[in-house]
Task: inverse folding
């Protein structure tokens, strides 16, 4: 017991639970040692008694073992968590020992003076001798009563310990801690029965036991309790004892068993061969010793392996669990499964109050909770900066005042995550995440063995985590590309696939997004009486959000085309819709025109879009420069509407800034002047589609190897023949 107490104390002398258990074993073991010396004193005659004062005093000193009981009660009130009674009273630890301190001092004091008071041959004056005898009788009576009553005090301590252990067993949900309490509780029950039989029952009922029997029962009671603690340490990792210490205990037990076996067998064989052969025992003993060394060596190895297999290679041991987890992580590619399984296993294996794992994904940190409270997203979002600030010189960090991390980061981790240990997950110089581990349920600290195992696991976990993040990114990119492709197909289905066959008008258009889906749109909406609407627009931004807004513009245009009086009114309604339905940073430019094929007149309204170009048959260039505010900036805006006559041979070009502002490799702009010049040089009999293709071919030739940075949308309208003069009328009258 004494040596076991030393091992536990050396594990962590600063940890309260280690101090309590060590004290419990020290007192029990020391009392047994002193009691054995007292027994030797009683068997060694007067010479030994003269050397060590008196026999009674020496035996009373052995009562130091009874400090085992307050230490045991203190243990029950602080393991696995501190009970309310221990928290409420500041001096609780000292108060528990007060009765036993008084009891021990009384026994030692009386043991010192009792021989003097009860010695009838003591030379004292005759007048004082009766007083001395009375005092001796009173001291003897008081000592007997005190010993009887104090046995009840020890019994109360044991009962209170059993009560608190049962309460702890009921309150805790951790399987390993419940096993520890169950084993220690069984040892305590055996201790209580044997102690009652050795001390309490004889004292209360006046039964006189043989000294050897009383000593044997008391020592066995202490051995049962300390044996239960030993088994709990070795088998269930009580107090988070390191593997080296647990192996030392196992090997000490195996050595003790073999020594006992040797003494029991070899001594008997020596006696047997001495009687049979008549040879001197000094001749036989060396032969038997050599045979024992030859035969016992395999037995020692075999016994050590058996005990190690029984106690140290348990599949449920947390070291084996973490090693198995390390092997499993190498074959797990699902990121969420990897994170959830890893942190849950770590939290369960180490019996932690809280355990979190964070993966530094590209878009946002991914956190899984193995144990503990849910952490709000805004707090989780702060983790990447904190994790990336961890010093690269180390991988594990104890969250204490001495931790080599920023004080604000340390306070954040302690207050939000109740962190005690942080292990960075790094691979190939890149930080991919972190383990954030809270306190253990039993209140013990992380041992160097814990940190070493977790660091090894973190190395394996980092590789799997990086692979999972890469796979997640690839899957996300593939899914995004698939969604964009689908969105592109949907968007292209909204754009005109054919153009109206109107006598005297040739029209063609196309839109090439700079990404899978873009924010440019164009449309041709046929109406009755040889009229149709054309529209072209450019939505701010790119990708899906811009495509959604452009689809909304197109849908609104088609909804109003057959019922609204004028293009300016259509523009006003679309502006109000965009203003109410989009965010402040979203807006669009838009151009709408009504083409009257009878009167050959175009009525248009412009909301901040690029001015269309009208190239007359004689080569003159007319810019439709009337415009208004872009869509979505202000509600209730009134837009102007203007008209212009079309003549045979005229060509109108409608385009977005993806053409006019396109830049080549030398950062030169394509420009509207180049566009005008190019259209003017094309053959006058070229159809609208041919003009469109020529313009796009020239544009991409201008760009060279440089990709277009914006959507490219182009519409060409050509007047094929001269139309009759007819007064224009509102759209509603024509539909």
Result:
């Amino acid at each position: 017991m004494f040596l076991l107490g030393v091992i536990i104390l050396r594990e962590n002398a600063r940890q309260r639970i280690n101090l309590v258990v060590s004290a419990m074993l020290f007192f029990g073991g020391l009392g047994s040692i002193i009691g054995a010396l007292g027994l030797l004193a009683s068997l060694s005659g007067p010479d030994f008694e003269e050397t060590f004062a008196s026999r009674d005093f020496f035996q009373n000193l052995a009562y130091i073992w009874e400090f085992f009981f307050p230490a045991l009660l203190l243990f029950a009130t602080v393991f696995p968590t501190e009970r309310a009674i221990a928290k409420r009273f500041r001096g609780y630890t000292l108060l528990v020992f007060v009765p036993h301190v008084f009891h021990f001092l009384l026994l030692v004091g009386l043991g010192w003076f009792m021989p003097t008071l009860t010695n009838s041959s003591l030379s004292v004056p005759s007048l004082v001798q009766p007083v001395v005898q009375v005092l001796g009788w009173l001291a003897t009576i008081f000592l007997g009563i005190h010993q009887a009553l104090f046995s009840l005090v020890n019994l109360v301590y044991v009962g209170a310990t059993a009560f608190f252990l049962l309460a702890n067993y009921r309150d805790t949900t951790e399987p390993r801690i419940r096993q520890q309490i169950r084993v220690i509780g069984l040892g305590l029950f055996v201790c209580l029965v044997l102690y009652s039989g050795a001390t309490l029952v004889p004292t209360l009922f006046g039964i006189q036991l043989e000294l050897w029997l009383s000593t044997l029962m008391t020592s066995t009671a202490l051995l049962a309790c300390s044996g239960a603690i030993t088994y709990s340490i070795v088998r269930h990792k009580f107090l988070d004892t390191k593997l080296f210490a647990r192996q030392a205990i196992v090997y000490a037990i195996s050595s003790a068993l073999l020594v006992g076996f040797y003494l029991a067998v070899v001594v008997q064989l020596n006696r047997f061969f001495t009687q049979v052969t008549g040879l001197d025992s000094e001749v036989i003993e060396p032969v038997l010793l050599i045979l024992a060394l030859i035969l016992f060596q395999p037995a020692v190895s075999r016994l050590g392996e058996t005990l190690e297999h029984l106690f140290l290679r348990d599949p449920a041991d947390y070291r084996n669990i973490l090693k198995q987890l390390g092997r499993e992580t190498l074959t797990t590619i699902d990121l969420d499964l990897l994170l959830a399984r890893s942190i849950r296993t770590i939290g369960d294996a180490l019996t932690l109050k809280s355990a979190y794992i964070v993966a530094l994904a590209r878009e946002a940190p991914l956190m899984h909770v193995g144990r503990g409270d849910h952490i709000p997203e805004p707090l989780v979002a702060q983790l990447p900066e904190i994790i990336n600030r961890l010093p690269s010189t180390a991988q594990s960090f104890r969250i204490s005042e001495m931790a080599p991390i920023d004080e604000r980061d340390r306070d954040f981790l302690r207050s939000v995550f109740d962190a005690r240990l942080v292990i960075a997950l790094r691979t190939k110089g890149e930080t991919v995440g972190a383990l954030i581990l809270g306190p253990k349920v039993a209140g013990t600290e992380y041992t160097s063995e814990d940190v070493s195992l977790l660091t090894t696991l973190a190395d394996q976990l980092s590789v799997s985590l990086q692979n999972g993040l890469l796979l997640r990114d690839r899957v996300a990119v593939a899914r995004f590309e698939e969604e964009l492709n689908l969105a592109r197909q949907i968007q292209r289905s909204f754009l005109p696939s054919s153009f109206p066959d109107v006598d005297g008008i040739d029209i063609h258009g196309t839109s090439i997004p700079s990404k899978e889906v873009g924010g440019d749109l164009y449309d041709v909406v046929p109406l009755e009486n040889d009229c149709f609407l054309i529209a072209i627009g450019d939505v701010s931004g790119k990708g899906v959000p811009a495509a959604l807004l452009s689809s909304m513009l197109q849908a609104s245009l088609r909804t109003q085309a057959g019922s609204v009086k004028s293009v300016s009114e259509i523009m006003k309604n679309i502006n109000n819709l965009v203003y109410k339905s989009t965010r402040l940073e979203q807006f669009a430019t838009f151009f709408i025109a009504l083409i009257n094929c009878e009167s050959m007149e175009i009525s248009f309204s412009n909301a901040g879009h690029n001015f269309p170009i009208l190239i007359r048959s004689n080569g003159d260039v007319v810019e439709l420069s009337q415009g208004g505010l872009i869509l979505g900036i202000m509600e209730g805006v009134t837009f102007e509407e203007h008209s212009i006559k079309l003549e045979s041979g005229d060509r109108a070009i409608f385009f977005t800034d993806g053409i006019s502002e396109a830049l080549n490799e030398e950062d030169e702009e394509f420009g509207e002047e180049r566009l005008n010049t190019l259209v003017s040089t094309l053959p006058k009999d070229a159809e609208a589609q041919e003009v469109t293709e020529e313009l796009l071919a020239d544009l991409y030739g201008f760009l060279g190897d440089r990709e277009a940075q914006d959507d490219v949308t182009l519409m060409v309208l050509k007047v094929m023949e001269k139309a009759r003069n007819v007064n224009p009328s509102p759209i509603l009258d024509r539909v």
